[in-house]
Amino acid sequence: MRAALGSLLSALWLSALLQPAALAAAGEDRVAVIVSASVAIHQLSAADVRELFLGRKQVQAGDIALQPVDNADKQARDLFYSGVAGMSGTRVRAYWARVVFSAQGRPPPELSPTEVGRRVMEQPGTLGYVNAANVPAGARVLFTFP
Length: 146
Hints:
The protein is α/β, with parallel strands linked by helices. The protein has helices spanning 2-25, 46-53, 74-84, 89-101, 113-122, and strands at 31-36, 60-61, 64-65, 67-68, 70-71, 110-111, 126-131, 139-145. The strands form three sheets. A four-stranded mixed β-sheet has the order 4-7-1-8, sandwiched between helices. It has a two-stranded antiparallel sheet with strand order 2-3. A two-stranded parallel ribbon has the order 5-6.
């Protein structure tokens, strides 16, 4: 009985761990990092995106400092952080808890997918990520994955 329970728990854990990668491999989800088309930047590397969203780096686009916002959609957020930073949602929360506790920064504000697109368009310099199929008109895609 114990062995069967252990095997079941291991299978569930592995399934949860691989779910974002499996969805991406199936072509169901692609994540697009977006900014307003009025901002003078045309692409970012994966390293730049990772460092911006983890609060480790500032990037200027002309006179505007890029300000990241997180997507409140759990699937999009998990796919984003696993693809860009190699971190699960739990690791990202633990990372930000340490950063906030040590007074070294604050996590990006978390907005609904609709609000991410709206904020990007209304506030130049806002950097967000959405499902690639839902990129708002007038937004520039800086980076996509997988």
